[in-house]
Amino acid sequence: MGYYLDWAADCRDWPNHAASRFIEAAGMRWHVQVMGSGPALLLLHGTGAATHSWRDVMSKLAARYTVVAIDLPGHAFTQPPSKNSLSLPGMAAAVASLLRTLNISPVRAVGHSAAAAVLVRMAVERLFAPQDIISLNGAFFPVTGVAGQFFSPLAKAFANATMVRKMFARMADRKSVERLLRDTGSTIDADGITLYQRLFSNEAHIAGTLGMMAAWDLHWVPQDLKNLPVPMTLVFASGDRTIPPARAAEASRLVPHASLIEVKGLGHLAHEEDPTGAAAIIADPGSFVRR
Predict the structure, then answer these.
(1) The whole model's pTM is what?
(2) For the chain, what is the largest distance between any 2 Cα atoms, rounded to a whole number of angstroms?
(3) Among candidate residues 197, 192, 191, 195, the one with its CA nearest the CA of residue 175
(4) CB 26: neighbour CB atoms within 10 A?
């Protein structure tokens, strides 16, 4: 399907494009953004997103950290070498390979939604050793009930159906994207909506997103949480309609060294709704933890 997006056409207005570079690692070509100076800080976006989701967070952290944001395999400008790279262990191994290629050892790693589970797997497998992990509305548990019985099979069918991917891409008009984002409990700015529409209108990005959903298996993540060798701060938004806020407390009871931070009035994309607040928490989570 070629590159996931056309960098030559999209780079001019892609957020923080001056910080972008392309790196070969783990059998794929990655889009990576590096900004600032100081200890390395890794930012991983959630399913269906890209580096753009950190667009207003990165610059606020760059004075204190060397901030590294990447497009995950199959997303935006990063290509997957195989379906295995879209699974949780496959993605963890691929991201670790990229960090080795970059010669970067993050002191802190931040994961939004499903990416929080990637970071946990990386730490449990000793693929990297940050001082701590921050989970932003982390997705650590399988979908339950009737939806859980159909979610993975449907995603697998959709991921392998070219016509379905084309249909999703054609349906990504602005109103549909606005409704989809609003259903997460978040209200983001017009630029953010435009960027998500660009992603959701791209058939290859849709394929990567559905492929990740199809390959995702969270049944072993609770055990990973119990074995997590580094402290973790779980940040959850009270208005999150994608991950029930109570899941953060559930996860914190499994992690040996966990802290909880509640963000009121925001949804699943809280770091895009309030990048200043998100950057402050990422820079100094201890200041926000209730004692």
Answers:
(1) 0.92
(2) 53
(3) 197
(4) 20
